[in-house]
Design goal:
Elements (H helix, E strand, L loop, with lengths): L4 H5 L3 H4 L14 H10 L12 H10 L6 E4 L2 E4 L16 E7 L5 H10 L1 E4 L2 E4 L2 E5 L6 H13 L4 E3 H5 L4 E4 L3 H17 L9 E4 L6 H13 L4 E4 L4 H14 L13 E4 L7 E6 L2 H13 L4 E6 L6 H6 L5 H10 L10 E4 L7 H10 L5 E4 L7 H8 L1
Parallel strand pairs: 3-6, 3-10, 6-7, 8-9, 9-10, 12-13, 12-14, 14-15
Antiparallel strand pairs: 1-2, 4-5, 11-13
Helix pairs in contact: 9-10, 13-14
């Protein structure tokens, strides 16, 4: 496991209160500062003359690569260095791959279905990560060229089975759920806890063909969480892959970084100059909750999304990441007043205390928008629009 700054600090002179405490000979103002930089890898352990051999041994082991990173046609897999996401973060999302047999009579249709599959998650398009072709020799030269070209044009990664088998990846055939789950756990713990190089290769779970879809989805979901680096399917089901991609997005989201969307003005249901106008921050969860409700309205609307470092409305306000001045700057930057006749901007109910401040700032900027306090919860927007606007 990687050492934290506090774990390193307890071995240093300042923690032990010896005569060399905070001597600054390493170039850092304190032993704690040195420990924190050492933990981040921005300082060399040799720069401290008073580091005990015990710390040197522990530190050297902690800096070893836990799991190798393997790159396949631009796809990175492996590289993990923690057992739980909250310890730091997971690195490379579990790759979802499909193995296609070129000898299947309906190969071409299956290939097209897999190649063209995509869904949008948090404004990002997600596709199958890798197509693996088995028995490609059965294809004519022309068909093989066409297949490879189609993948390049569609930005889909493709590799032949013979090449895939030669990669430094451990392949586990999923014949028994309990056995596979235990093996994945054993390998990851060996790699992370013991830095055992014999278990440092990324792991791919290969599912057999024609498994029950519900069982397959449940097992795949478990393996995404613990601890497969790749999943290789011989069955393709768009609904199942959509579910797995959504789960993967949640599991591999960095908990230290807020989810945010682009700050701009979004349009719903063919917005025009008379459309409703809503406002919120660029916190992704808030945006999608509001956007979902606006899409369902029988009226068109705009949603002004202000930059707030991915913070929710109250958090942004308390951190001064959402201010009346920022709202005015957004309106001015987009020249929004020239695009609409509607002069009512609906703000979240949690920001009702900002109504006067916003109206004062808007008036000072020479704009004539009125602020309307909206709902606290996004699910109440439809009723609010019907009863109030």
């Amino acid at each position: 496991m990687e050492l934290s700054g506090l774990q390193i600090f307890k071995y240093l002179p300042a923690a032990k209160k010896t005569e060399n405490a905070n001597c600054k000979q390493c170039g850092c103002p304190t032993c704690m500062a040195f420990a924190l930089k050492l933990a981040k890898g921005t300082e060399k352990i040799e720069n401290c003359k008073y580091v005990p051999d015990e710390l040197k041994n522990i530190y050297e082991k902690s800096r070893k690569i836990s799991q190798k990173t393997v790159e396949i046609k631009g796809l990175k897999t492996g590289g993990e260095n923690v057992l739980a996401r909250h310890e730091k973060t997971f690195i490379n999302p579990t790759a979802l791959c499909v193995l296609l047999d070129c000898e299947d009579l309906d190969f071409q249709k299956k290939f097209e279905d897999v190649k063209d599959f995509e869904i949008c998650i948090l404004n990002k398009t997600k596709k199958i990560d890798l197509i693996v072709l088995k028995n490609s020799d059965s294809l004519t030269k022309e068909v093989k060229i066409t297949t490879i070209s189609a993948c390049k044009e569609n930005d889909t990664r493709l590799i032949l089975w013979d090449e895939f088998e030669k990669l430094p990846i451990k392949i586990i055939k999923d014949e028994n759920f309990s056995k596979t789950a235990n093996e994945l756990k054993f390998i990851r713990e060996k790699a992370i806890k013991e830095k055992d190089e014999n278990y440092s290769n990324p792991v791919c779970v290969h599912f057999s063909k024609y498994q029950n879809s519900d069982d397959l989805c449940a097992k795949a979901a478990f393996y995404i969480c613990k601890y497969a680096n790749m999943l290789l399917f011989e069955n393709f089901d768009g609904a199942m892959f959509s579910s797995l991609l959504m789960l993967r997005e949640n599991i591999f989201t960095d908990p230290q970084k807020p989810l945010k969307v682009e700050s701009k003005i979004y349009e719903f249901n063919d917005a025009d100059e008379n459309s409703l106008i809503f406002l919120t921050t660029n916190f992704a969860l808030t945006f999608f909750a509001v956007a979902n409700e606006l899409e369902k309205l029988d009226r068109s609307s705009y949603l002004i999304v202000t930059p707030a470092d991915g913070m929710s409305v109250l958090t942004a306000w308390s951190a001064e990441k959402f201010t009346a001045r920022m709202v005015v700057q957004m309106l001015q930057k987009t020249n929004f007043s020239q695009k609409v006749k509607n002069r009512k901007i609906i703000i979240p109910g949690l920001l009702s205390h900002m109504k006067k401040e916003l109206e004062t700032e808007i008036k000072s900027a020479g704009l004539d928008f009125e602020i309307v306090v909206g709902t606290v919860d996004a699910c109440e927007i439809a009723d609010f629009v019907k009863s109030t606007l």
